[in-house]
Design a protein that fits this description.
The structure is a single chain. The protein has four helices and no strands. The protein is an all-alpha fold. Helix 1 crosses helix 2. It starts with 8 loop residues before the first helix and ends in a 13-residue tail after the last helix.
């Protein structure tokens, strides 16, 4: 397992934000791309995501919009 130059969950979030914005992709896709590019296991990324409420919320929001999970956000429930 290699964590490249990621020293903290905050560093990981910054990298994912850069990828998502720079490539115009979803946060979920950015995480997957980062894992593939840096030879990191998805489980390692999951532990970093769990440490960031902001990134976790962004991925949750995307999943709700795609109807992959039940909406829990107040503004999405009708």
């Amino acid at each position: 397992m290699k964590i490249s130059n990621i020293k903290s969950s905050a560093d990981f979030v910054k990298e994912i934000d850069k990828l998502a914005a720079g490539k115009g992709i979803s946060y979920f896709d950015a995480v997957m791309h980062y894992c593939e590019s840096n030879n990191i296991e998805v489980e390692t990324a999951a532990s970093l995501i769990k440490q960031s409420a902001v990134l976790k919320a962004k991925i949750q929001f995307e999943a709700e919009n795609l109807n992959l999970v039940q909406a829990t956000s107040i503004y999405l429930q009708a």
